[in-house]
Amino acid sequence: MSTAARGRVTRRDYRLADGAPAAGWRPAARWRRFSAWVLDLALFAVTLGIGWSMWVWRDWARGTTPGKSLLGLTVFDTDTRRPATRNRMALRALVYQVVVVLLGVVTLGLGWLYCVGAALGANRRTTYDEWSRAVLLERPRQAFR
User: Fold this and answer.
1) Among 136, 102, 130, 98, which Cα is nearest to 117's?
2) Closest listed residue to residue 37, CA positions, set 107, 131, 119
3) Among 26, 49, 75, 116, which one is most buried in terms of CB atoms within 10 A?
């Protein structure tokens, strides 16, 4: 994928971890992105955070989380055009998402509205996706078979 002049994401140059083209991958649907977030919260609660944390450590190496993995979503690094590394995933989750939460608290919710608006835009990227130079892509449907 490359970023066009107006900031839209195109899938042209992205590659999977094995080097194969990410043909057919597209920006994650909004409902799928939200469902992965809810699934991650539920899995965290069910495993009391312990099992989920171990699962996250394993999945971050492949650019995903437990919820994203179950729904066929992968975070791609816009610099390398490959699935995000564990370091990029940790930076995205532990730094940028925390900053977004803090912005929401400090601005009494207005910061969150901005972040939600960004995720609902044509590019389907949250503020922390932009800051961490990441894009969330969805596997093609035939890949689920």
Assistant:
1) 130
2) 119
3) 75
